[in-house]
Design goal:
Distance between the termini: 34 Å
Radius of gyration: 14 Å
Number of domains: 1
Bound molecules: zinc ion
Shape: globular
Order of helices and strands: HHEHEHEEE
CATH class: Alpha Beta
Number of helices: 4
CATH topology: Muramoyl-pentapeptide Carboxypeptidase, domain 2
CATH architecture: 2-Layer Sandwich
Largest sheet: 5 strands, mixed
Structural class: alpha+beta
């Protein structure tokens, strides 16, 4: 399976490399860290009134993918993104309005939360508590 850098027009619409390699690396990183994006996702899961699966737009991001997105994306990609160390995840949840997902994540005070309406996802990380 080859990972395909995403950009405008990518079916996932997020600007993130998406492939089995990335998913597996995210799982390995998550298993080694507490707190983790998985833990944040679990807390969000309990706080949301839905059983729909989360759509993970981006988890772990390699340096090359991050640099590609920084230079080819529409902005908002940090040079030292927490995606690089497996501490961030970009998600959407079917049936949950993006602002509600964002407000719920912010209320949990588990780290950083950013909303990206144009790309239809919310960024959640386990860094310092902050919003954008
Ligand atoms: Zn993100």
């Amino acid at each position: 399976m080859s990972a395909k850098p995403a950009g405008p027009g990518h079916p996932l619409g997020s600007g993130c490399e998406w492939g089995l390699r990335e998913i597996l690396r995210l799982d390995r990183v998550e298993a080694a860290r507490i707190p983790s994006p998985a833990a944040s996702r679990g807390r969000l899961r309990k706080a949301l009134p839905t059983r729909e699966p989360f759509h993970i737009i981006c988890g772990f991001r390699s340096h090359s993918t991050n640099e590609y997105l920084r230079t080819h994306g529409g902005g908002g990609v940090a040079a030292r993104s927490l995606h690089l160390v497996g501490k961030a995840i970009d998600i959407r949840v079917p049936g949950i309005e993006l602002r509600k997902l964002c407000r719920t994540a912010v209320a949990l005070s588990g780290g950083g939360v950013g909303i990206y309406p144009a790309s239809d996802f919310v960024h959640v990380d386990v860094g310092p508590v902050r919003t954008w």
